[in-house]
Each structure stands twice: as structure tokens, then as C-alpha cells.
Amino acid sequence: MKKKVLWRLLLISITVVLAVVFFLPNTPVFQHMPEWWKKNMPGKGIVLGLDLQGGLHLVFEVEGDKAVEITTDRYASQLRELFVKKNITTDVSVSGLTITVSPSSAETKKLIADNFPIFSATESGNSTAYKILSREAQRIKDNAADQALETIRNRIDQFGVAEPTIHRQGENEIVVQLPGIRDPKRAIDLIGKTAQLEFRIVDDEAKVAAELPQSIGPGEEELLLREFAGKIPEDTEILFEKKVNTETGIVRKLPILLKKQASLTGDLLSDAKVNIDTRFSEPYVSLSFNAAGAKLFEETTGANVKKRLAIILDNTVYSAPVIQEKITGGNAQITGSFTMEEAKDLSIVLKAGALPAPLKMLQNVTVGPSLGRDSIEAGKLAAIIGTIAVVIFMIFYYRLSGVIADFALLLNIILLLGAMASLNATLTLPGIAGIILAIGMAVDSNVLMFERIRDELRAGKTPRAAVDSGYDKAFWTIFDSHVTTLITAAVLFQFGTGPIKGFAVTLSLGVSINLFTALIGTKSIFDVINSRRELKKLSI
Fold first, then answer.
1. E strands along 268-410, which residues?
2. How far is CA 68 from CA 34, 131, 360, 514, in A?
3. What is the mean pLDDT of residues 55-59?
4. Given strand 269-276, what is the order of strands in its sheet?
């Protein structure tokens, strides 16, 4: 046997072994493999998509107007600091998307025009109202959608969902698909949490703070806020800390008067992780600040010893401990009678960063696994019937050569499944359609080559010469048709989304493998047969 044929057979054997190894995790055999194998060999395989194993389909809208409002608030703070720095006494107030400077002077107008060219101004009496220009507002909204997409992706990655689909849809919508998710509520809470972390000083010195009730029941917050609306100082607000009685399960809300101005915010965090309290065996979230945050935290705690510092996430107070001394080192912790899952989710959202704007849920569809199971069973039945029909037809029509074509078909399926498993590809219903189309092209390639060989035999050539000539003549036809299909699949993958990409992946893998099995696999078998003895007649 020629060395060239031996090398081809070796190559085929290696690819088959690799394919089987990669596909093992998708078979029951993998559970019985020894531990060293599970630790060192691929253990993921092909992942079923949302339509096959069920899961969660969510569509969120990024509230772009809220992002502009948050940015307006930030600019107002910068404006106040600028006026203080320049020793200018004037009032800066914010209402929605408008910053009002009163009284307004030529000096304040020039300062704002020089430092904030993104504002449009409208004068009214001795005050001037400023708004962010429309083109800048649109840029803020676009950035908010992009940042929200990345933040959600980071949170999902750390949550540990296999093969999620997360992409932007239209101007301000984000589509999230989580296949195989078992706790939809936890996932929705994790994604939708804005995670605006703030550290604020509790204003216990204000007279009204002593008038606040010790606690109220859930649902009574609005009533209390209306009662104290005109009593609390302008630079403060009332937020609530949730307390749960671990024995009775009764929930109470503790009203706390806080300074509006945040001493620190979550953007200065460098890490957040879950730890266990050794005294009460309760989980808590440990925070570490970056260098700038650590310095600010030290200054804040040093300047407010014996005062309470509230830790607030999304306008909910988690804890408000008394500062006993200046805290150096840039570490803090959030306690709050968490379960382990709650503490873990909190650390995830803090590490992934805050959303630039709140999310509004537009669609929440839980896909059950029953449809997927039915589809898989129907697909298996169709595949078995189709494969048997093709095998019988090829043997009936091409005799021994038909058996070789069936071998190529089997090789094609094994390598395709192995390739998908090596890429940890997600199999969806469109993906199954891509596999079936690729297998159909594999059969078509063999039919094309066999007909060429038949033509050569009719022309009077020997079997060996007819096989060589038939493959040579069919090669470019098969190659061209497969390359054009590959180009189509590449375009579908580039511009398609979700299921379309799944179809493109399986089709491109199938077509590439088909080139290998059709032009190398079957040819090697014919060469082995011809090398053993000189055939006088080819069964085709």
C-alpha cells in the first residue's frame, strides 16, 4: 500500500478518535469515565439551545431618558463644585433634565459656556435654565445601551449560564436568552438590578430624625414620605432599611434620614466577594476600593467618627453602622441577613458594575423543555428513517461503492458532531436543519463522483483509472459548490442573529467536513481496494 494512502488512513483515524473524545460528554458513557478523564479531558460537549432544552427569553428596554437625567445630575454637581471653587455664590437646582442657575450673571454664563459647551441656555428673569443639547443626549442614550449590554453580559458570565445569547435590538432594546435556566426569578433580579451603590452619611442630628418612627410595615412607605415631605431639610431624604425577623419571618422597614450627597459611589470599587461571618455563620459581601476610593473612604470615615454611614444599593439601605474610627485600607462590608445565593448575586452585580440606566422589561417568556424534547424525538426519528432510506438506496443503486458512500456518510456525522462538541456549539432547531442540509450535500457529492466514474468505465477505462479520473473530474465541481455554500454560511453568520447563526455554524462545519470525507475519505477506501489486487470490474 502506498505511503500516501497510509497517511490518509492515519489522518482519518486520528480525526475520528478526536471527534469521539470531544463528543463523549454528550453520551451516558461519560458519567462512567474515571475521574482523571473527567478532570483532564473536554467535559462540556454540545449545548442544547433555548428551543431544545427550554429556558428564558427576555427583552429589556434601556431607559435612555433616565440616563440623560442621571448625567444631568452629575453635571449639576460638577457645576456646584466649580462655583464654590470660583467663590461664586449662586443656587444650582435640578428638575428632571433642566439645571437652573439663579441668580445668573455674565460670569456664571461664561463659566458654563467655557466648561460645559454641551448645554443650551434659556434665560428667564434673573435665572438661566440649561439643558443638554439633543445630539449629546442621543450620544448618552446610545452609550447607555452599549454599557448596559456589556454589564448584562458580565453579570450573566459570572452567574454561570452556558451559552447565553445577549444582543442589542434596535435603538435601545436588549435581548437575553438563557437556555436551561432553572431559577428564572433569580436571573431576572440579577439582570435588572441597577446596582447603584452609594455610601451616605446618616443625618441623626436633624430634629426631624428623632420624630421618625422606629419601623413601619411594608407598603406604608409612601404614607410616611408624604407625612414628612415638608419637614425634612432640603439636602436630606428618607430611605428605608429592610429588617426580617428570622424567627417569625415578619418584615419591617426602618426609615432613615440620609444626606442626599453620596460620600462614595460604586464606581470606585475594585472587588466584591462573599465571606462568612464567623460569629453568626451568615454570609456577607466584602468590598475593596481602588486607590482613589480607599483614600476617599479614609477621609470620609475620619471626618465622620461616631456618625452612621449608610450603605445603599438602588435606594435601599442595607446597613448603617456607626463609624468608630477612621478606616484605612479601603475595605468595607455589606451585611443584611443574606442567603448565600443573595450574597453571591449581590457580589456579582457589584463586580460587574452598575447599569448606566434602569431597565424596563418588555418581554418575559419562559420556554418549556417539552417542545424541545418533542423536537429532538421527532428529529431522531426523521434522522433514523432518512439514514436507513439513504443507506439502502446507495447500496441498491451503487452496490459495493454504495457501501463506501455509506461509510463516508457515517464518517461525516461522527466528525460533524465531534467538531460541534469541540467548539461547545449550541444546537438549535435551525442548527439541526443545517446538519441535515450538510448531510444531503454529502450524499450528493458521492453521487456526483460515482456517476463520473461510471462514465469513465463506459469509456473503457480500467477500474483504477476510472476511479482516479472520476475523482479528478468531479473535484472542482464539488469544491466550487461547497465553497459557494461556505460563503453563504459566512454571510448568514456575519449578519444573522441567534438561530440564523446556529444554522450557519452547523452548515459551514458540515460542508467543510463533507469536503474532507468525500474527497479524501472515500478516495482512500477505493485506493485501498485497488492496491490489494488489480480489479477487473468495479461494483458501482
1. 269-276, 283-289, 309-313, 316-319, 331-334, 359-367
2. 57, 10, 16, 53
3. 86
4. 269-276, 283-289, 331-334
Q: Which three cell numbers stand for residue 349?
A: 452585580
Angle between helix 369-422 and 3-23 (nearest 10): 140
For residue 320, the SS3 value is coil
Could you tell me if 321 and 307 are in contact, meaning their C-beta atoms sit under 8 angstroms apart? Answer: no
Cα 488 off chain centre by: 27
pLDDT digits (tens, 9 = 90+) for 16-47: 999 988 888 888 888 888 888 877 777 778 87
Q: Report the distance separating Cα 83 and Cα 243, nearest Å.
A: 41
Strands of 423-531, DSSP E: 426-427
Q: How far apart are CA 354 and CA 333, in angstroms?
A: 18
Q: Which helix (H) or strand (E) holds 37?
A: helix 35-40
Q: What residues contact 520, with CB distance under 8 A and at least 6 apart?
A: 8, 11, 12
pTM of the model: 0.62
Distance between alpha carbon 154 and the CA centroid of its chain, in Å? 7
pLDDT, one tens digit per residue, over 473-509 is: 888 888 888 888 889 888 888 877 667 777 888 888 8
Q: How far is CA 53 from CA 162, 373, 394, in A?
A: 12, 7, 35
Q: Measured between alpha carbons, how far is residue 184 from residues 100, 178, 344, 351 in Å? A: 44, 9, 16, 21
Compute the distance between CA of residue 196 and CA of residue 182 in angstroms, rounded to an integer: 27
Nearest to 221 by CA among 248, 252, 200: 252
* pLDDT given at position 194: 76
